[in-house]
Amino acid sequence: METITIRLDFPYDFERVLERLSMDPLISLNNDERYVMVPTEDRKIYKVEAIGTTDEPIFNIVGPKDEKKIRKIKEIFHFDRSLEPVHEHFATTNLSSIFEEHRGTPIIREFSLYATLMKSIIHQQLNLSFAHTLTTRFVHTFGEQVEGVWIYPEPALVGKLQVEDLRELQFSTRKAEYVIGVSNAIASGELNLESLALLDDEKIIETLVNYRGIGPWTAGSFLLFGLGRPNLFPLADIGLQNALKKLWGVADKPKAAEISSHFPEWSPYLSYASLYLWRSIEQDSFRNRYVSFNAPNDTII
DNA sequence: GACCAGGATTGCT
DNA sequence: AGCAATCATGGT
């Protein structure tokens, strides 16, 4: 065990990070003590704890001594890239208000690439509340806990499940087929997410959408939250459509063409535009729903 | 009880 | 190529 202390030279609001991560009941965190528990791909657990402020961000990473994993955690928490250029970019755009409002909100990646894909598929078209119910059932039933932290099951295990196993958790038949099918492709080695990660955005999307159950939204979500790519805007996302509807004060959700006409203005940081737009509506629905502590066993107190 | 949810696929024009 | 139906169920 060792503790590594990191100081950032750009604004970083960990309170907002915790607020956002609190939406997922599978993540072990403590809002008051300002920490998140992070499982690595090989089941080691790290604690990431904020001990500074938004304008003087300082963090402790506590866990097994391992340089590669520390680097991975820095990537997950966006410690390795400044948010300064992002804020500078959006200050002169039509999204400046939400970037001021949520200043210092980083893209936090999912803790594993496979989990990103499973979570995205399971979340397709469902309201966030029920979506989280399903992912929680999925992980509680087939995953496992390490040091109190829930970890998604291995692709090989999920690949061997029957559709009925997931139907019992109230997955639709199709969703069950998607989850099992993609897991099998990964388990067999046909689909290798780590090597996929070396390709550019377009190539990754092109590969992923060949799999039944992965469309443009899920592929975009994988790039954004799995790999932390900076320039993705999932046009199919209802949340983003609603966020723009609210921001622009219009009666109907804007159409894809209308939204994408702003891409030149928002590029090359479309992912941040997405993230900050999501944030702009999350407060409405989640401010009063989740409280400060997700206990390791997942009970919401 | 209708309608929508942080979509994707399938089948029909 | 583009559109409608379909999926399962919770939230509003």
TrEMBL record:
InterPro entries xrefs: Alkylbase_DNA_Glycosylase/TA, DNA_glycosylase, HhH-GPD_domain
GO biological process, one term: base-excision repair, AP site formation
Source taxon at top rank: Bacteria
Enzyme class of the recorded protein, top EC level: hydrolase
Domain HhH-GPD, chain residue ranges per copy: 122-282
This protein's UniProt keywords: DNA damage, DNA repair
EC numbers for this chain: 3.2.2.21
Catalysis performed (reactions): Hydrolysis of alkylated DNA, releasing 3-methyladenine, 3-methylguanine, 7-methylguanine and 7-methyladenine
SMART domains hit by this protein: ENDO3c
GO cellular component: cytoplasm; protein-DNA complex
GO molecular function: alkylated DNA binding; DNA-3-methyladenine glycosylase activity; DNA-7-methylguanine glycosylase activity
UniProt cross-references to Pfam families, sorted A to Z: HhH-GPD (PF00730)
Family membership noted in the UniProt record: Belongs to the alkylbase DNA glycosidase AlkA family.
Protein name: DNA-3-methyladenine glycosylase II
